[in-house]
Each structure stands twice: as structure tokens, then as C-alpha cells.
Amino acid sequence: MSDETPATPSGPKAPALERGVLTIPNAIALSAAAMAPVLAVVLNAPAAAAAAGAALPLSFLIAFIAAALVGNTVVQFSRLLPSAGSFYTFNSKGLGSGAGFFTGWLFWIGYATLAPGLFSALGAFVHDYVLATFNADIQWWLFSLAGMAIVVGLSLRSIKASVSLDLTLLVIEVVIFLVLGVLAISTAGSGNTGEVFLISSSPTGFSGVGLGVVFGLLSFVGFDAAATLGEETRNPKRSIPLAVIGALGIVGVFYVLMMYSLTAGYRLNDPQQLTAFLQDANPFITLGQNIAPWLLQPIEISAIAGIFSCLLAIHNTTVRVIFSMGRDKVLPSSLGRIHARWFSPHRAIFVQTVFTVVVGIGVGLWLGPGPTGSYGFTGAIGTVAIVIVYILSNIALIRYFWRRADRSLVKHIIVPALGVLALAYPLYSVSDPTQAYPYNLVPIVVLVWIALGTALYLYYRAKSPEKIAAIGAFVAEDDLPLDEQHESLLIARASSVQHPTIEEEFQRHPEVSRD
User: Fold this and answer.
1) What is the pTM of this model?
2) Rounded to an integer, what distance in angstroms lies between the CA atom of residue 32 and that of residue 27?
3) Is beta strand 338-339 parallel, antiparallel or unpaired with respect to 4-5?
């Protein structure tokens, strides 16, 4: 008996991930874990404060609002088109199959390249913790491989177990940092002031706050991960939008609160304290040493748990994008197979695992495995690709609803337009070719990837146009309106001679109108 379901089955249904096994909290956990809130505040807060100064909380508040503008796009599309492909499917419907192809191409590499950096960072953080605590110097990549083995096992056997673990780790690490934040605020004295939400608190004014917003927005990358669970979540048209809103809201409030607690606890409104802060390698550890030494061990363990849960979430998100593209035959159709017993996209999982390990170890040995090495470089590449996808999705939402009777001027036109504007400067900042080596290579890597995608797209258009036509056709059809079901029936898998005829499709779906 075979342990897999092929991407082009002769049976009546194309391969599908297991339906209805996840709940709203599960989907929130995936999105929140993908944002890695604890890791983001530890790494991005010092970088943002270098520009924003005491206006650090204001920068993250503005970033929260900007992320919500993009979140609106995910919510609006998910209410109509729940799919494991998320933006790949959304942009196919909104901008056409060509844009859908490039969305999938960029979205795939965007999330795929985040994983190797997390893989190496996990090993680096565990290595440092074991060395400091037990005086044992073990190679970082051994810890990375051990963590990756756990990720693969969970991903293969159960998406529900994966997101449940994400949720558990997320709650623990967030609670520990919230305790630190509350203690910092309660002992801050003169550091507590509402002036940190004024532009004048930044040493360089508006430009400093703006650059701080860039790092704030980078902290929200991954909020959309729940959208890739559109085929596995109960009542996805309701659950996925609520999960995206919930994850954005919870993590956004956490960011603003932690930025305020760091600003108040470190008294960044004092120029001398700000100078000391900018010279501090790990401000949160210093804050913990000053106000709650007993929290140091939990803080360090929370950082490790945050990296692991983020790696698990990014891995599960990426393999679902690969699976969707394999199912559409944009990537090799074997990647669109699912395991017959576990209902996991097992071949996509193995491919992403090999990519993560090879690139993670390679770049980790080249640049170092820590935050300023592999994690920073691969993260920058992934961020550029993902932000381009976010911008395209906002444009797709406007076009998709432009002529629909249910169009809302605010939700479907104004908000996504503001989302495009909000992302323009962060995209430029991260892809600036004048950055120091190796970050000056980031735009080159992304452009090379786009060039490869263009070549593949032109090949498909010339040799296999039916593959382009079928892009993004698979959605959670049990929840689709009849007109969308009709469209999917007519174009999905048109290239496969093994598939039933259109007449047979209509016989199996009598509820679909022939008109």
C-alpha cells in the first residue's frame, strides 16, 4: 500500500491537506510564532533605538498600524479564498496567473530563506547557553541539527501538534518577558513618561522615528502565516481572518508594551542613558540584571524557545506554499503529494529540510551563525521578497474588488493603497545596495531569483500554458461561493489527461450552475 497521494490523482479529488483539524488558537499560534515576538524585541529593539532614541515606542506603534493595513488585505482575501497557498492564491485571483506565478516564486524563497537563518541562530544561542551554564563547548551546528530533527518529526506527523507546541512555547516566553516589562515599568521612576510617544523624543526627529518604523515593520513579517492553514482550519472563512487579526493584535500590543518598558526601564529619555544603551550588547539582559536577576535564566531560555517556535512555524508555512505550487505543477508535481496516513506534504517537507540544513550550515560557517551573521543576511533576503509580495497583494485586493458589488471604499481601496505606501520605505531600506557587505548582496540575490523565475515563466508560457492557467485554482472549495467553484472546476488541472472530463465534473457537482 502506498504511503502517498499523488498530485494528479485519477480519483475525483485532487490531493488535499487534512480538513478541519485546526482551531482559531492554533492558527493564531502559527502567525504569532512566525513573527517570533521575543526574538524580535531582543534583536530589533536595539537596532531601532539607534535611530529612534527615546521615541522607540512611537516607532513600533506606527509600525503596528502599518502592519494592520497589510493585515486587512489578508483578512479580506481569506474570507473568500482560504487556501494553503495564501498570497500565491490571492494574487492569482486579483492580478492574474502571471502575477500569481511570481508571487509564489517570491513567497516561496522569502519564507524558505528565513529558515536557514533561524536554524543557525538556534544552534548559536543553545551553544552560548550551554557554554556559559555548563562550560561545555559543543559545535553549534549539532544543536541546530537536533532542533531541525524535532521540527521535521512534528511537521510530518501532525500540524496540530506543531501549532499546539508553538502556542505553548509562545505563551511561556511572552509571559516571562511581560513580567520583565511590568517590573521595568514599575521601577522606572522618572523613566515613565508619555513623551516617548512624541516625535520630539527622537534625537533626529521624524527621520529617526521613520527608520525605527522600518525595524518595527520587520518585526511583523510572518503575521500572515495563518493564511497558509486555510485548508486545514475549521470554518476557514471565519477562522483565518480572526486568527490574523488576533495574532496582529496580541503581538502588536506586546511590541509596544515591551518597547515602552525598555525605554522607561533603561531611561532612554536621559541622553547619557541612551548612550550607554547604544553600547550595550544585550539591553534586555542588562535590564534583567538590574531589576530581576532571578529572571536571567528564564529570559535566556525564552529566547531559545522563541527561535525554535519560529523555526517550526516558518518551516510549516513554507512547505505549504511549496505544496500548493507543486499541486499546480509550477514546481515538480511530486511536491504536491501528501502522506496517505498523516496528511502532511511530506515531499515538500523533505525538500525544505534539505534546503534549510545545507544553506543554514553553509552560510553559518561563512558569516557566523549568530544574529549579525547568517540570521541577519538570510533574514534580509527573505524580508525583501516577502515585502514585495505584501505590496502586490495590496494592489491585487484593489483590483479584485474594483468591479464587485460588495466593494467597500475603505476596506478594499483606501486601506490597501495606504498599505502600499507604508511598505515602500521599509522595502527601500532593506534592499539598499549601498549597505555594508554582505548586505549589499541582498538586492542582487533577489533580482537573480526574479530573473530565474522570469525564465521559467516564459518557458511555461511557451511550452505549457495550461500550467500558467491553473495557477492558484485550488482553494478550500467546500467553502467557496458557487461562482468560484464553477471557475475552479473549469480550469483546475486542465493539463492532466488523467482527470475526468468537464461533463463528469458537473455530474459530481450538481449544485454548480452550467450558466
Assistant:
1) 0.81
2) 9
3) antiparallel
